[in-house]
Amino acid sequence: MPAMDATMNDPVRELYSERRYPDLSHPVTDISRLWVSARVAGLGRLAEPSHCRVLEFGCAAGQNLLPMAERYPQSDFTGLDFSDTAIRKARQASYEAQLQNVRFEAADLEHWRPSHPCDYLIVHGIFSWVPDSVKTRVLDLCGQVLSDNGVVCISYNTLPGWSLRRDLVPLVKALAGNPVAAGLGDTVESVAASLAEMAGGTTAHTANVQAICRDMMRKGPTVLPFDDFAPVCDAVYFTEFAKWAAERGLRYLGEARLQDNLPDGISPEAYHKLAPLAADPVLLQQTLDLLSGRTHRNSLFCRVDAAMEEGVTTAVVMHFAAGPGPVELPPVDNPVVSLFRQLVADASPSCVPVQALMERTAERLGGGWEPAVHSRELAKWIYQAARLGGIELRAEPLSIRGQTMPTPRLSPLNLHFAGQGRPVVDARHFPCRYPDGHQGLMAKMDGTLSYEDLAEQAHADFPELDFHRWVAHLAERGIVL
Ligand SMILES: C[S@@+](CC[C@H](N)C(=O)[O-])C[C@H]1O[C@@H](n2cnc3c(N)ncnc32)[C@H](O)[C@@H]1O
């Protein structure tokens, strides 16, 4: 790692004291999914989300940690951040939602000392955005704070994919508001828009420039100053990152999202050719980064001496709960798998234990069900489908009623978020922001007002809002309970 530059710490501190970091929850760090991803990678004794200790570095105002603390009342959650303002906001939310199992510490990671081990360590949006001295400290802490069979989920920008973006950033900055570049735009977003248009996208390079500029436009002024245009925004080769982790006694397990283990744009034939590289997972991953142009990772590491077990057996897959994933998979020519898929779709938006889904499949098939053969076949398919994004796997079932109740109600935490104008967080840990007035309406959904009363108020205050459709959407996402 390059020599540390102490003065670099100030611009980062300055940024977080001067500007408000947006409230974001990150589904990729949801411990229900992390448990599955670590489990299939062989970390067999990782504590289940329902009874575990979770630590988050750089937790900001707790938008990521608090919903998990509310979901798992028997688990302990600790969030750490050097922004006093963010920590005060996080504490206020935990107080309002009466959460007894979460605490927030205002501390600088550079000087903080862990007092107890954790089973899940979440380090999202930190590593690439802090000075080298803090990077070193973060990695040291990852090596020190994990329990024997714990897991860390850490995000960072990766090379060579990030390199073009790294080169674009100073150029976009130099052009923004520059009199000699008049017409390209006064802000970095407007310059990105001009470049996206001019790039045209007819060659691989210009398409890449265009995609990066469009991504900058999508992130916009609320996110860009903390991301691409942050005072520190580095990238690293995976081989280098894995080496630093290994020096701290950490072993690479895989990516936090199962589907990120097979990055987009690489054909099944290429994967087949690369299969022998499985003997050197770090080299395989670096090759995949080169081929796919991946720009970002959310990687899982455990202690090198953690107890490893066989990852993907039928018994292991039976432990999970399954629901439909974000990717539509093509039909399969296998009646058992087709029936199973139909049952998953029927249960949507809920996630159901794989065991129960298999039992239902067996019931429907009657005499055609061969337990040993079909359960193995289905377990294999479920795992493959999850890696392709066609199935979502979680540690525990997710029960979403999906229909609206006579007195719609939000969880105490979402009620607080809605009242504060913060995004609410859905049952799958996605942040959901609605127009301010609509948020205010949600803040009234505390279970005391009837559906009809709320509909009447909505009609009076927001005649343009299709209240019935909106509440159905909130119920479908598990926001309205
Ligand atoms: C880019 S934000 C990411 C927030 C959140 N983890 C996320 O991904 O949405 C970085 C956070 O790390 C905090 N941070 C940066 N350097 C820190 C340090 N040395 N010690 C503690 N917190 C730090 C900032 O205050 C900020 O809340």
Automatic annotation (TrEMBL):
Residues 226-303 form the Methyltransferase regulatory domain. One of its GO terms (biological process) is methylation. Keywords: Methyltransferase, Transferase. It holds the Pfam family MethyTransf_Reg. Residues 50-157 form the Methyltransferase domain. InterPro entries: CFA/CMAS, Methyltranfer_dom, MeTrfase_reg_dom_prd, SAM-dependent_MTases_sf. GO terms for molecular function: methyltransferase activity. Coiled coil: none annotated. CDD domains: AdoMet_MTases. This is Class I SAM-dependent methyltransferase. It comes from Luteolibacter flavescens. The lineage of its organism: Bacteria, Pseudomonadati, Verrucomicrobiota, Verrucomicrobiia, Verrucomicrobiales.
